[in-house]
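WARN  no MSA supplied for this record, continuing single-sequence
INFO  ligand: flavin mononucleotide
INFO  echoing inputs
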Amino acid sequence: MQNIDSIKTPSVDYSVHPLIAARWSPRAYDTKPVESEKLQRIFEAARWTASANNLQPWYFMVGLKGDEVYQKIVDSLVEFNQMWAINAPVLVLAIAKTTNAKGEPNKSYAYDLGQSVAMLSLQAMEEGIYTHQMGGFDASAVTLALEIPEDYKILVAFTLGYPGDAGILHPNLQKLEMSPRSRRSVSESVFTGSFGHKADFL
Ligand SMILES: Cc1cc2nc3c(=O)[nH]c(=O)nc-3n(C[C@H](O)[C@H](O)[C@H](O)COP(=O)(O)O)c2cc1C
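INFO  complex generated
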């Protein structure tokens, strides 16, 4: 069988940092736990994200396989995600504080939290640890179960772990796991002159 990372690493139009090209979202994970030192560095990366007014709205609830937080996160996932996410040794909820110190709305919370997850995903890749983000979970249920305070909003759940053998997955998921990644071209997203006009530098 072809090496999965070689299937997942895209042929880019313009060369990028190898960690960016290599990142992909697995559903099969090895049972090996993620070392504490690696978790420390992964969350340190999130810490240094830029944010509006340096409010740093990111917070993370981390569940390690076997603990109560992990089980509560699993319970909140939609069935499709439960099918594979239970392979991961670490499950995390990414949570944003939606207000500033005066209690006023921080309109940048989602943007900033998203950036922090992107940052930690790349640090994770550097550590040989793969992330898979999930929007398919019951945010209200897990907010209650984990007693997340008011003004905090869970935006995404994600896995952390070493990639595993696709053979452990349900056959439908195996197909997804072995498919190449695809994206529209840069020229369809990056414009100069007018919206929709392919950037001149491309
Ligand atoms: C906000 C967000 C929500 C997602 N929700 C799910 C999900 O519920 N289940 C799932 O299997 N993948 C989910 N994904 C993963 C995407 O499907 C995946 O990132 C996308 O197909 C691109 O694949 P790649 O990350 O391997 O490049 C989500 C990703 C993001 C960023």
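Residues 24-25, 81, 133-136, 156, 181 surround flavin mononucleotide (CB under 6 Å).
INFO  checksum written, moving to next record
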